[in-house]
Amino acid sequence: MIVDKIENAHLYKGLSENLDKGLELLKDPTIAEKEAGKYEVDGDNLFYMIQIYETKTREEMLFEAHKDYIDIQAVLDGAETIGYAPTDELEIEIPYKPDVMKCKDPKIFTETKLANGMFAIFFPNDAHKPCYQYDGPGNVHKLVIKVKI
Asked: Going from the N-terminus, what domains does the chain have, and what CATH number goes with each?
């Protein structure tokens, strides 16, 4: 897992060509103006989603992990907490369907806050529990970039 400010996204280039393209999307100011939905960039290799939602309680959310995609999640407006744990430490609740599995909370996991102008990268071995409240309920405008590994 990587957590940083969008202005530092260039520091993570060179890991893969598709990831580099995904990181470039973080710098596009027009993305924040798009309506909620899915947008293709390079078919299944690279696409993104604009999401607008109200954060939920920690108990309402499950950990998730992806086997075929790297997630780049960037908060365009608002703030949320995201949990992190290595996938090998989780008890599977719902197996992969087709690319996402859902897991129960482990006894110990890391929490981080994502606020305006921040992003996180989750690799296939990085389970994450997004979209829950940081300091009470709040609205979030988020960019989720899916990068094929």
From this structure: 2-148 (2.60.120.370)
